């Protein structure tokens, strides 16, 4: 029996059904003509939830937020031409942070390339520098052999994005007209239709094993050998969303070895109900002390997670000659100081358990309590001064915004941090708390584009109270993202710190060149953001005091619409308070 079909639709539906069977739950689409077959296929599939975004750049970052929370690969669909380039910033961030995205770009057929055809560019492996794998899906062909190849491509795309390489993969789909379901192109046997509709049921044969034995490997034995004779050691925990087991195993390792744990603000270790006996949060302040750093040179450093946020710690590591070992799931290098001895691919919680198993059965270690106590003493001094100077600063100090937000947010909250000063201030001033808070960031490439869209994706996927702490330039960059908040009624709360321009440049030496600095670096925008918020049907409130921030944030979290709480600050004044805090810590330690 013969059935009339549109080969583009059959092709796209086969691909999308395979993705759904392999665990893809979300797709972020942008309207276009050439991607019509893919759009119809995703619209038809009930297992994949669709989010539609007019702006491709916003679409890419929204997908990034969805993937960060779900841990599953998120599909992104756009039309041909420069639309593909608009996705690139989000792809770069996903590549740097190893977030699984499946980028599906529609394209003109080969015969239209280099012919002046409208909306046609060279899309073949266009993201080659920031993609884990590229696949050319090929011109649709309704044959069992070609459909079988397409199914295998879908399978490989999911495996590459989640297991083999982890990160974004790119599939380019060239389509010839016509695109619509009722515009028939072929008559095919039911056998082909049945084969296309049949799920392959592919399963991964390369899942990572939790019981891989590293105890005999040279690098592991080297670490054990140093630990056994090291009185002074450090555990650095950088940004990452770790397995919950790591929170416990890291604490046990710290207690056994007597090593302080320097926990980045976005490491998740500062928050939650796990023990925090040896968690150090104010190291950025006391590591600025020349006296402290001179007297506290470690024998070994164990570093987990991604690149640290703290400039103070980064400078400290540049001047450390101790062997430093980086352990993360992919074995990536996170070492701007270029001083690390090696990077090793292993799950952090398993690494801690292996060390505990080796050391726990060995002879009693040297007493390291004095080394640990000195760090805890510096932490106590810094915390006391932080409470006196930052937590008592007058409204509207930028540093205090962090502690006030942490006081106001509920348990089980999600916080997204913008790049520039918000993520730095969070690292400086976020103290430990028993609240269960999960922190997100875009510190892969550390751009300020797409911050709001990423936060909206996080809020949409988590379904939990979500707060974005952002700056005025990042907010301006991604105003288009607010349309998703309006269309999908995403109740994101945005704490907008507005210092009217590039306030982060205040910390750079160029700030002393006043005339050039203000015109070319700060670049005041003088925008009235309330009008934009109201245009997108959001709640807006200009915050006028700390009490106002707390009460407004609490009520905003109960709203079914997105809210913007704007705090107008002075970058120079806030910098003075930060510097006063750092100076007082230095004086106390010296």
Describe the structure.
The protein has 590 residues and is of the alpha/beta class. The protein has three domains: 2-197, Thiamin diphosphate (ThDP)-binding fold, Pyr/PP domains (Rossmann fold, 3-Layer(aba) Sandwich); 218-381, TPP-binding domain (Rossmann fold, 3-Layer(aba) Sandwich); 390-589, 3-Layer(aba) Sandwich (Rossmann fold). Helix content is 42%, strand content 16%. It contains 23 helices and 20 strands. The strands form four sheets. Strands 3-2-4-5-7-6 form a six-stranded parallel beta sheet, sandwiched between helices. The longest helix has 21 residues, at 144-164. It is globular, with a radius of gyration of 26 Å. The protein starts with a strand and ends with a helix. The relative contact order is 0.11.
